[in-house]
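[Meeting: bench + compute handoff]

Bench side (C.D.) handed over the final construct sequence. Compute side (W.E.) agreed to return the predicted structure before the next meeting so the bench team could plan truncations. Sequence as handed over:
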Amino acid sequence: MFGVVFPDRSFPLDSSAFIQIDPLHWILEMSAESYLEMKQICIFLLNNLTLPPDKALAVYVQSNNSSPFVFCGAVNASRPSALLTLHWPEETSSSSDVPRITYPDATPSPAKIGVSVEDLATLPQVVDAGAQGRIEKLAMKVGENLFNFMQSFCGVDGNRLVVPMDILDRWFIKFRERAKRDPDYLKGFSL
């Protein structure tokens, strides 16, 4: 029905690698020691699967038996594959300053990846936190570049900074010209 790949970590796995709970739900148990290394999953529909247009395969993760399942994303007939970030839930404790007690003989609860067939309309929209963070960092770097440029033309009037009216135009022209001259210049802004 579907397959998954953990980028840089695995070969393709089909749904037979998962434990089928019922006709609409599958679970893949992960080793408790290595699940945090799995940052992404690529899930894809297999060629012979015909998923109705109003249904989707949703992906969830659970870091241990006591944590909730967290929705990561979904694939459907119009989006037959997706690279999803695995947002592993943090283990909860009653207080952050209370040390955790570990028992050497205790086996840690395995983490799980769940896949289920669900109504497409009921699934939440996923915002890729990693992409959002990269966009925010890029915006901060561009803003810092603008601020540093403006600072070199600032004057002081009491407790106000005064800059020339055309400062944004001058900065943008300089920024664009440098990007045209040096293709690696913009790479310095990406993370």
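W.E. noted at the follow-up: DSSP finds three helices and eleven strands in the chain. C.D. will use this when planning the next construct.
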